[in-house]
Amino acid sequence: MKWLIAGASGFLGKALRVRLASEGDDVVRLVRREPASSTEFRWAPDVGEVDESAFDGVDVAVNLGGVPVAPLPWTHSRREEILSSRVNTTKTMARSLAARAGSGPRTLIQQSGIARYGTTSGAEPYTEDSPAAPDYLAQMTTKWEAATQPAADAGVRVVMLRTSPVMDSSGGSFPLIKLGWWCGLGATLGDGSQHMPMISLRDYLAVVQWAGTHPNASGPYNLTLPQPTTNAEFTDTLAAALHRPRFLRVPTIIVRAALGELADQMVADQHVIPQRLAAEGFTFGDPTVEDVVTSALGSAVRH
Question: What is the pTM of this model?
Answer without folding.
Answer: 0.92
